[in-house]
Design goal:
The structure holds two protein chains of two kinds. By secondary structure, chain A is mainly alpha-helical. Chain A has one domain. Chain A is 67% helix and 4% strand. Chain A has 15 helices and three strands. Chain A has a three-stranded antiparallel sheet. The longest helix of chain A is centred in the N-terminal third of the chain and has 29 residues. The N terminus of chain A is likely disordered. By secondary structure, chain B is an alpha/beta fold. A six-stranded mixed sheet of chain B has the order 6-9-10-3-11-12, with helices on both faces. A four-stranded antiparallel sheet of chain B has the order 2-1-4-5, with helices on one face. In chain B, strands 7-8 form a two-stranded antiparallel sheet. In chain B, α6 links the parallel β9 and β10. In chain B, α4 packs across α5 and α5 runs parallel beside α6. The chains are: A mainly alpha, B alpha/beta. Chains A and B meet through α10 and α11 of A and α2, β8, α5 and α6 of B.
Amino acid sequence: MRTSELSSRPGFTQTTIGRTVGRNWALFFLIFMVIVFAFTGSGFFEIANFQNIIHLSSTSILLAAAETFVIITGGIDLSVGFVMGLSSALAARIMVILSTTALPVPWIIILGSLAGLVISLIPGFISGTLVARFKVPPFIATMGMWGICNGITLRLCHGFFPIAGLPAALPELGNGYLIYIHPGKSITFFQKPEYLADNQIRELIRLIPFSFILITVVILILWFILHRHRFGQHTYAIGDNVDAAIRAGIDVNRHLVKIYMLSSFLAGLAGVYNVFQTGIGNYTTFSAMYELFAVAAVVIGGASLAGGKGRILGSFVGVLVLAVLKNGLAISGVEPFVRYIAVGVLLIVAVTIDQLFPDLF
Amino acid sequence: MGYIIETRDITKRFGGLTAVDKVSMGVNAGEVVAVLGDNGAGKSTLIKMISGVHRPDEGSILLEGNPMKFENPMGALASGIETIYQDLALAENLNVSSNIFLGREKTKKRFGLFNVLDHPYMLEESKHVLDKLDIHIPSLKSTIRTLSGGQRQAVAISRSIYWDAKVLIMDEPTAALGIAEQKKVLNLVNSLKSQGIGIIIISHQMYDIFEVADRIIVMRRGRKVAERLVSETDPDEIVGLIVGAETVKK
């Protein structure tokens, strides 16, 4: 059989270079930004700053990864930001309560973290069930959980008070590095050299933050699930053509519940990690808009809200684009509101590219 | 008779509407039976009962003489009843072999722990089935989105055949195709027939029916109103039966 006339005409997006550039424009844009900011901002092009960008983006990366799965199925999860807050607050609250007992610190931390992770499965289960079995639009189902999780979180926080009084080991773990080099003096792993006081920490070269290890592991696992496992294959099929998936015998309802639970669990992981990073239990403020930035990152990373499209590494790049933009503009001394304009422009560009070249996937 | 698939007095009601009313029909192995009827005659409902989408309210479905009860389409698939819908039900963002194996992916163990999709195996097997049907697709790794209508139809057919279909149900297989591709699909139907598969075709294209079918069943308002051997009838009679003979006699 012949291929149709249209697809045999070689346009730019049909050529290998065109496809590579088109599919990875966000990556090219990221590199472009890094080069520009390297000239405009002093202190931008440094390992310490790059590590800092990734370290501060780790929760956003987890949330974007969560959103990626949901968006590929053609849904959206608006609850990730507040599920993150819920897990953070619950984990912290449990740790505070356990601290009054004679339990050793490692147990306090483990049990608190587990509580935060387990609770995060519940909103996902509820919104997944609503979407799959009761055909509630994902926007509404997860918006319901958005409100509910926020309310419960604020109850846990007794209003707008972050939960403090947690084990001091938490932020050390959350903000630790794998390698500490004191130039000309010592190299230590996992902990800074003991002879060094806290205020001398800037003398150290610190490499590979723990957060980087965490997100690398999570991204690898998710990449595997999405691109090498049956689960991912079914996720793409459902997003493109739900009837095809049903007729191929895929249990679509069950799959969707799993997708929303996975999303919510990753948000919970972000929440628990946030406790390690900040040393307190944080509720999510409305102005944070984590869910919208997660959606933005995923869309910039090449996903389509229509479903069937999206890549985990694309979303990772999407988060980095937003993070580098924020960091680079700030270091270059640009007024902060410019960032929002840039994010808006980028989103529109991303969706336009998706509309103009639907074959790029 | 030794029908490979048979319905006995099956009835389906949707509320007050009787979509299919006591229909009995059968298909032999290696035979093509066409189900004809105007819109709303109950053709789709009939085949949806056979393919497990709807459950009949009355009557029974027999596969190789054994009564079957399908809870869902998966049950029918597992028994060897494959259906190709008009919209083909392909995931356009996945490639040819992924579609052939969709829902029934072959996996292999990696490190004795994870089940990884076995793409090389699936590609190889897809190539086999496409070759067997004499279908040429430039690359099995290309996504369905990049294929023509006929190629998509061929992929849908290959998918059904690969899983050892005993019965193949085709809903308007040539409706969306160009002339050359229609021809190709009809050739495919003939080659499937020679492999001993029982085929049920729903179509509006009278030419196609007379080209490939052995028997024609005409439905009107949920009832089976006629059954003819293709060799003993002609398109005029069939059209008359479809619209109701009295109208035509005038």
